[in-house]
Design brief:
alpha+beta, Butyryl-Coa Dehydrogenase, subunit A, domain 1, Butyryl-CoA Dehydrogenase, subunit A, domain 2, three-stranded mixed β-sheet, 55% helix
């Protein structure tokens, strides 16, 4: 592509965004389809094909890709809004989108100037590639800062064999981002990140996915075998990518998806209270206090996410700020706080509706919402995060005023 063609592509992409539907309109269209299929996706534990067919039609998978590579150059605020919108419709769709977005962010933020990574950006934007994530390995329980499998170098190629006990939607993805030790002699924490096309790896299923909730994420286990050119390996060490991109995007996008689930349950609780009041001459139902608690909890959850979103947006291009103890502690603990608040919100909403919320066969049912949101404290276990964060939180100061 010459310079003139590149400029034309940028202009056409900008025109498409300005003249076409807004990102939130595109997300709303996708959410409508996702909501209509959500119960079936949950019941059958199947990938939400209809939602992602629509997401591709709406060009949602490549919204973050810079305009010069064919995307819309969407911000972290844009993609978390999409996660929230999808979360209100179908938790599995929202979580898949959140995980995809996190991997795309890694390629964007750490792949500039690397021909393969820029090719991947173009394929995500043009062909709407869906990127999966392989971070959980063997018995490490989600400890992604220690890898057992190592990259084996042979000339201009690398190979890798990984016991990937969880690869969400791995069978449906067009590409994969995974972590490994830098070399066979490297320490477990000396890691690199790889961005792979489907032709670069093979998957052999080793575990199923029969779970309480988030059933449509299809997070089965695989033996992952990689044989690919060396340019699939990011030059930057993974510890830097983890701190600057992987953790902030994952925790912000996951939290936004969980907030969407919580909001959907509060909407059902609100509808229940309104109907109960209408049929009883304006008398509030006995559990109406739980609706107030649900609204308060949802407000706290949204405020928490927004505060961390704004903090990340301010520091996004400042390596020193991103690496600071205060930022890292806050963005790491966001996952813990948001997951607990999301569960609390859905529980209050269900208690508002009582048996009507507990039932699986009525208009106010919240069983799917509760089962899905209960995954949030378990997904990279909150206890592990709190234990790992203990040292750093002890070292951070206590604010002297409300504005500090």
């Amino acid at each position: 592509m010459n310079v003139r063609e590149a400029v034309l592509t940028v202009d056409e992409t900008q025109a498409s965004l300005l003249e076409g539907p807004s990102l939130i309109e595109r997300a709303a269209r996708t959410a409508t389809v996702a909501a209509a299929d959500a119960d079936a996706v949950d019941r059958d534990a199947r990938f939400p094909h209809k939602a992602f067919d629509t997401a591709r039609e709406q060009k949602l998978l490549g919204v973050m890709i810079p305009v010069e590579f064919g995307g819309f150059g969407a911000s972290i605020h844009d993609v978390t809004d999409i996660c929230y919108t999808l979360g209100r419709a179908c938790a599995s769709t929202a979580m898949i989108y959140a995980m995809h977005t996190t991997k795309v962010a890694c390629v964007i933020r750490h792949g500039h100037g690397i021909p393969w990574m820029e090719t991947m950006m173009r394929r995500v934007a043009r062909d709407q590639w869906l990127l999966a994530s392989s971070t959980t390995e063997g018995q490490n329980g989600g400890n992604i800062r220690a890898s057992a499998a190592a990259v084996d170098h042979a000339g201009d190629t690398v190979s890798l064999v990984r016991d990937a006990t969880v690869i969400s939607y791995g069978a449906e993805a067009d590409g994969l981002v995974t972590i490994a030790r830098r070399a066979t002699e490297a320490a477990a924490s000396d890691q690199v990140l790889l961005a792979l096309a489907k032709d670069d790896y093979s998957l052999k299923q080793t575990q199923g996915w029969e779970t309480l909730g988030m059933r449509g994420t299809c997070s089965t286990g695989f033996e992952l075998k990689v044989d690919c050119p060396t340019d699939r390996v990011f030059p930057e060490a993974y510890d830097k990518i983890h701190a600057q991109t992987m953790t902030p995007f994952a925790h912000l996008c996951w939290s936004s998806a969980w907030a969407g689930i919580a909001a959907a349950s509060v909407m059902r609780a609100q509808a229940f209270v309104r109907k109960a009041a209408r049929t009883s001459g304006g008398q509030m139902p006995p559990a109406a206090a739980h609706f107030t608690a649900a609204k308060m909890s949802l407000a706290k959850l949204r405020a928490l996410i927004l505060a961390n979103l704004d903090a990340f947006a301010r520091a996004e291009h400042d390596e020193r700020a991103l690496g600071s103890l205060d930022f890292q502690s806050s963005i790491t603990l966001l996952k813990v706080q948001a997951s607990e608040l999301a569960v609390e919100t859905v529980m209050h909403a269900m208690r508002t509706a009582g048996l009507s919320g507990y039932r699986n066969d009525g208009e106010f049912t919240m069983g799917r919402h509760l089962r899905d949101v209960l995954s949030s404290p378990i997904m990279i276990n909150n206890d592990r995060i709190l234990a790992n964060a203990a040292t750093s939180t002890l070292m951070s100061g206590i604010p002297a005023s409300l504005r500090d």
